[in-house]
Amino acid sequence: MSASGKKAICFYFQVHQPFRLKRYRFFDLGHDHYYYDDFSNESIMRKVAEKCYIPANNIILDLIQKHKGKFKVTFSLSGLAINQFRLYAPEVLESFRKLAETGMVEFLGETNSHSLVSLKSRSEFERQVNNHKEMLKEFLGVEPTSFRNTELIYSDQIGSWVADMGFKSILTEGAKHVLGWKSPNFLYCNSINPRLKVLLRNFVLSDDIAFRFSNRDWNSWPLTADKYASWVAKLAPKSELINIFLDYETFGEHNWKETGIFDFLYHMPGLILKKTPFRFMTPTEIADLLQPVSAISIPSPISWADEERDITAWLGNELQVAALDKLYSLAGKVNKCDDPMIKKDWEYLQSSDHFYYMATKFFSDGAVHAYFNPYETPYDAFMNYMNVLSDFEIRLRKYFPDTAEQDQIFKLDSQIIEKDMIIDKQSAEIEKLTRKMARIKPTVKDGIKKVTKVPAKKPLKKTAEKSIKKPASAKPASKTKSSK
Prior knowledge:
By secondary structure, the protein is α/β, with parallel strands linked by helices. Helix content is 53%, strand content 10%.
């Protein structure tokens, strides 16, 4: 239980819009260096601002004033979203500033470009997170102390990097395959660096609002604020923390005003405060007040996308893998380049949306993948992106010609970064094993004291002999597997 004796509920909203690319043909290479569909970007931003951002922000501001310190929410605004507000909807940025000034809203750190960089490079990841910190300071006057990665992508290693950067907590998915018998309704910590608290999304309660609210075939339709508060109350005896994480466009865009979504948003906080023991808190408050029940081990990256909760929405086919590899093969050159247009394009081209449009997963999540997708097929998305990337590479070559010497320098640079990442990974593993050994040692000593009369040499010899007699193919096979 928290130090204050209260149970916590955390409402978090993701706000992101990519800079969509225009139709860029092979014949444009080397001639046209402007890649963006300004008409689509402006019209979509204006539409979402009017249907979602402005009305939802007004309701949240009203609720904060009405509940006098008892209602708190959390947002993450990608750097690309902030830039689009500045270009196309400055009143949206102003409304977020007003929310920041209340002191009841936490803004999270993240990658500036809403990118997949955490899957490719630690140094590039840290650079983007620091850029995003600067943007939040400049445009909202806040400094983030908690973190969410793009689309809640998380692994033990990513968490340890975030901890090293000084963040107190991180948000991710309460995926069934990593939780097992555990409940998402408690606070956990990172398995490599326990200083970092891990908040896990309750995907059932979150998706009740995000995906099922407008579904008339759903057996709980219509969802009222009263009904939702009663579900939260039922969880109270066996829960300490409930995390409701949503796309902000859930309000007014995915679910139109006519569905009653804004009425639901307006009445739900008051009913939760009235009918349940849960109190609204932000991730940093939760990290400070609640004690984690245990570490959570997530060796492979997870996300909140699709039914699998993995990263296949962005890296599930060969097109996506090839495009992402090609993009980050240019990182060394971009970092040595001082051209502000190159830097800006590099930032915009990293948005995870470009890779999401290339997804060939059209099973239960087809409608989600098609949302705001400007391409008819994943292949179209891939070809358009690769044409743009090829032109971007041509521009980079003007600064850094592909001489054998230059190639060697960039190869060595990337090898150094790769080796640094391997060292980081192995250091974390050593630290983890050291902690395990420290816990095991007293038990081992006790066991030795109790069995001092039993000769230890013979069993050891047999074990050694057994391992020698194993087929020679067994060891190389396991090595090959692990190296992959």
